[in-house]
Amino acid sequence: MRKGLTSVLSESAARLYEQLIVSGGLSLEDHPDLGTTAECRELIDKGFARERHVGTPKLIPVEPIRAIDNAILVRQRALLDQYQYLLRLRDEMQVLQQTYEASANPSADINELVRIVSEPAEVSALSVELALSAHSDVASLETEHSSRPRKPENARVLPAELVERGVRFRNIYSRAALELDGAGEMLQASIRSGWICRVYPDLPMKMVLVDKRAALVPLGPTGMEGALLVRAPVIVATLSRYFELLWAGAVPVDNESAKIPPEQDQVLRLVMTGMTDGAIARHLGVSERTVRRHVSALQEALNVNNRVTLAVAAVRQGWVD
């Protein structure tokens, strides 16, 4: 067995791939259990093999130059992400150090720096009040936990005076939040209102952060169980850096700059968040068959065989940020 393959494949999958190369493919009729083995799924998922159902169903190898090139691209992308993470971590350290050195007077009243807000109505009012006081940036996290149903009329409309002031409004949704009924329509209404929206696989909490000077952090899942109003510079700086790290790794969901048809662009961006075909179909209000057709068209256009390499190739092609 070639040692290079085992750096990207398990030993058993590497042996199966070499067997496919030598034989030109294995009949799924002669090997009925082959398609369900872990080795087979690994080869398909990583772009080293594919099932062919024209004529006799077979598991056939993807041309080595393409398969290994895709594996190299995936590894390069992972290394780049790790490097960028380390750079962001260093930047975070520098910001925190500066905040630490210029922190508020230790004798300041602690109630001015951190305050507990327990009434749901006050939490809602304070969230609006903070946003209205923004001078440059409003950043928020949105999870699947909510006290209100997802409806387009519940989308947060941006005040005209803030838009004219040039305040930027950014929101990160958890993937689960977009899979709820009505979430797709509410998301599109938010985007039309002026929000810049992205999706992250999983978020631990809601949050509202204004101008890197104040943050509203919930005490419970929905945010209506109470919240902390935080103005302590060190804590706000930490929450701000946390948001920026999430923002850098989140997937944009608007298609204003799409380089492919809007419906394919929407599917591609949701594929990159890790959503299944079923979840994407529910989110967009289409059939799973339609989603699979779009995914197949995207894979064919980029000359790839699976979702992993589809994401890498789409980034390399400049179809998504």
TrEMBL record:
GO terms for biological process: regulation of DNA-templated transcription. InterPro entries: Sig_transdc_resp-reg_C-effctor, TrmB-like, Tscrpt_reg_LuxR_C, WH-like_DNA-bd_sf. SMART domains: HTH_LUXR. Gene3D superfamilies: Winged helix-like DNA-binding domain superfamily/Winged helix DNA-binding domain. Residues 253-318 form the HTH luxR-type domain. It comes from the Bacteria. Coiled coil: none annotated. GO terms for molecular function: DNA binding. This is HTH luxR-type domain-containing protein.
